[in-house]
Amino acid sequence: MERVVNTGYSLIANRYVEPVENKTLSLHALRGLNNLDPAIEIDELPDTKIAVRMGTKQLAAWDAPKADDVRGWARLTSQAVATSFDSSSVLQAYEPDRVLKAVMEGALKPLDKHSRYSDPVAASDSRFSREGSGGVGISIRHVDGRIKIATIFPGMPASRAGFKVDDVIAKINGENTDGFDERQIVRRLRGDIESDVTLTVIRPDNTEYTAKITRALIIPPTVQYVREGDVAVIKLTGFNQATTVRLQDAIEQAQDEIGDRMSGIVLDLRGNPGGLLDQAISVADMFLEDGVVTSTRGRHPDSGHIYRSGGGAIATKTPMVILINGRSASAAEIVAAALQDRGRAVVIGSNSYGKGSVQTVVRLPNEGELTLTWSRLYAPSGYSWHEIGVMPTICTGDLAGEGENLGSQFNERTRRMTEVIALWHANRTPPTEKLTKLRETCKPSDTENEKDTRVAVRMLKDRGLYDRAIGVTVAALAQLAPGKN
């Protein structure tokens, strides 16, 4: 525990976007034990001691280390946890990993909501989502007490071995899976690349099927392409190691299928929680000429960067619409803000989530992970969407319809939206009440309404309307130029 806590405190001291006192971390960490056993209390004593108490009985007290003594505060934390554990039958009923999780989650209380601790199991799942790992290429779901195959990834080992959607997983390597939860199944299906696993399933017709599968590198798919007439609609559900490559494949497929008749691309980022920063940069790079995509600033010397596009573009001229909603966050907002600011895409939908920060993820000695916010993100024009979100050029919640009257509705709102977007960019650190009022202009929506897609397709088919919509952001940014009021 001391190694994990010491590593965590050191990382926070060196990398977190704002300075936090070691004493504050330690006190919050120890008070995390109270969530498991309400009888445990932590006291700051007048003679600069930290004490642990159960009810009225003081269990032990320690001299407070110097303010900058990271190792000293980590040692105090671990000693206080050990003392509490020895005295609490409630704590002893928990696995040590659960006690450590309570301590680490407590330590992160003073930090922002995007900084978090993941225990070894959760960290393994997160690494799989980001980087992929050895697996068989399926997703699963729990139905009526049984674990079924929910999806088969095309071309992956399970598909090649003949497994199908709705097969019930009965045995893995001969071990009966009755009573297993989804996590236990996943743990057994994953393994080293090129290693084998034998899977037995029960088909919907009650026949049994068994086959050996050789695991391969599986990176969860994040790109889905469908054709809407002469428009390519591409949905990104996240940003992992394979997103850019698979997006490029989708665009090339659309270009081959539609050819010169292509009216445009709809990039659907609704519900996209984000992911890897480098993938957001490379996705934006596919659509932009040379120039700034985003920049970052933080406390750590290595946290400041200017990320530029250039060299990776494959579709810089095709008209584009980006769809966002209240669950579009982080990397999704980087792409939306960059393409909107650079006059490359019309953004349609509702206000986005507002996660304008970058997290660094570090593996801990226990194979868990610490995710820490270490810098703020800024759009090419210099504004940060942190806590405020990206404002769409067209707020579909304002539209009465999306047919022939779309143009007239948009024209009525052009001046107001130009002013709103200019205000959005001008308010670099708005107070909470002003922030709330600004977000009310186009309330974040968690839904993925088909109306958004229909408006996007309609706009791409009307080049005049599209050009006017692009002009809204251009005009808004012009108002912020030096010498403008």
What is the name of the CATH architecture of the largest domain? Answer: Alpha-Beta Complex
User: What is the number of helical segments per DSSP (H or I, 4+ residues)?
Assistant: 15
Mean pLDDT: 91
Give the radius of gyration: 26 Å
User: CATH topology of the largest domain, anyone?
Assistant: 2-enoyl-CoA Hydratase, Chain A, domain 1
Structural category is: alpha+beta
Number of strands: 22
The multimeric state of the shown protein is single chain
Number of domain units: 3
Structure description:
The chain has helices at residues 2-15, 22-31, 70-87, 89-92, 96-107, 120-131, 157-160, 182-189, 243-258, 277-285, 331-341, 406-426, 432-439, 450-460, 463-479; strands at 40-45, 49-54, 57-63, 116-118, 133-135, 138-143, 146-152, 168-172, 175-176, 196-202, 208-214, 216-218, 223-228, 231-236, 264-268, 291-297, 305-309, 320-324, 346-349, 357-363, 369-378, 394-395. By secondary structure, it is α+β, with helices and mostly antiparallel strands. The strands form 6 sheets. A 6-stranded mixed β-sheet has the order 13-14-15-18-19-22, sandwiched between helices. Strands 4, 16, 17, 20 and 21 form a 5-stranded antiparallel β-sheet that branches. The longest helix has 21 residues, at 406-426. The protein is globular and about 75 Å long. It starts with a helix and ends in a 6-residue tail after the last helix.
Summarize the structure.
The protein is an alpha+beta fold.
Please render the helix and strand layout as text.
Blueprint: H1 2-15, H2 22-31, E1 40-45, E2 49-54, E3 57-63, H3 70-87, H4 89-92, H5 96-107, E4 116-118, H6 120-131, E5 133-135, E6 138-143, E7 146-152, H7 157-160, E8 168-172, E9 175-176, H8 182-189, E10 196-202, E11 208-214, E12 216-218, E13 223-228, E14 231-236, H9 243-258, E15 264-268, H10 277-285, E16 291-297, E17 305-309, E18 320-324, H11 331-341, E19 346-349, E20 357-363, E21 369-378, E22 394-395, H12 406-426, H13 432-439, H14 450-460, H15 463-479
Parallel strand pairs: 14-15, 15-18, 18-19, 19-22
Antiparallel strand pairs: 1-2, 2-3, 4-21, 5-12, 6-7, 8-9, 8-10, 10-11, 13-14, 16-17, 16-21, 20-21
